[in-house]
Fold this sequence. Notes:
Blueprint: E1 2-3, E2 6-7, H1 14-44, E3 69-73, E4 82-86
Antiparallel strand pairs: 1-2, 3-4
Amino acid sequence: MPTEKGVLTVRGNVYTAYTCEEESFKITEAIDLSIRMAETIAQATQIPPDQLRLPEQETPRKNSKSKEHKEVQLVDGSPEKTALIGANLDPK
Length: 92
């Protein structure tokens, strides 16, 4: 690169430049995340307390029977020995 005092030579390291750029992206993401978190907290403080309750979950049922299958005992008196068959089969 020509200058008033002669030729100016610029040298660089591609690895260092790439590492620096990668780090700046990580810092930018962290700053953006902290800004969004602060906005979310500010919005959450404006919600009335009665709306902050979590909805109650329905407890899972142990024996939820399917309409597509029917459970049949293979051996009388052994409830662990069962099989599932189609509930809509022809009775024959």
